[in-house]
Amino acid sequence: MLTRVDRMLLAVRDREAAADTFRRILGAERVREGTSRLLGARRTVVQVGISQFELLEPASEGAVLAHLERWDEGILAVGFSAADLSALGSRLSQRGVSYSEEDGRLWVASDQTPGMNVVLSPDEERSPVGLINWLYEVTNIVDDHERAAAFYADAFGLDPARFSPIHSDRYGYTGQLLLFNPPQQLDRIELTQITEPSLAMGRFAASRGQSIYMGYVETDDVAAVQRRLDERGARYAGRSDDPNPEGLFIHPTALHGMLMGVSRTNLAWSWSGRPELAQR
């Protein structure tokens, strides 16, 4: 029932500064301003590609302020779109998954999932802007990837036959990709179960438990993103298993607490079960 990885929600201390960062690095354009009583926040929404990033600054007590006080800036939630939001809401209720409603969207708190705050929105057509094409992945660190996959398949109406196993000794995890609609789209939830606690993802999991770790975006021009990072003196790392500019990782210090993977168009199929689609 999910169609896209539609957005990321970030808890930030200064949404104007965050909007400027996304503009300078990714070519983001401001879409709208607003507030969320549910989250106790003032909101600036920017768009890059066809995806949106909600930059949430605390206005009162709530989830945004709590995140900043405990973890500092970073990813608060992921957003998915659905063709029939009403039907998805009914499906969640039937399965005992609680949610709140605000501004025509559904908010599913992390205590209802394997550690992810989730916003569900109706499908919306958008014209792409900026340097990336779209956000296609959220990484959810979990204790048991098989149990988490079963939960998401049931709750969100995903087809397990479309899922792809993953394993990385370099990054210290095993798990699976919960692909929504392959081979037409890369959109998915990446489930990672830690196998090596001493590595970066393992240390993050030791601190935060089941949680959102990062997001991944796709672009036709990785080098252009790299140049903008260099111009700002922002921290990033190249993918060690491919020659640059095949992809890179933008460090959380460069994007207000968000770790963002950047891959060139179709490259991610090489680790998503369909390597033949990864050609240029």
TrEMBL record:
GO molecular function: metal ion binding; methylmalonyl-CoA epimerase activity
Keywords: Metal-binding
Keyword Metal-binding: yes
Presence of the UniProt keyword DNA-binding in the record: no
GO biological process terms on file: L-methylmalonyl-CoA metabolic process
VOC domain mapped to chain residues: 4-138
PANTHER family according to UniProt: METHYLMALONYL-COA EPIMERASE, METHYLMALONYL-COA EPIMERASE, MITOCHONDRIAL
Protein name (record): VOC domain-containing protein
Higher taxonomy: unclassified sequences, metagenomes, ecological metagenomes
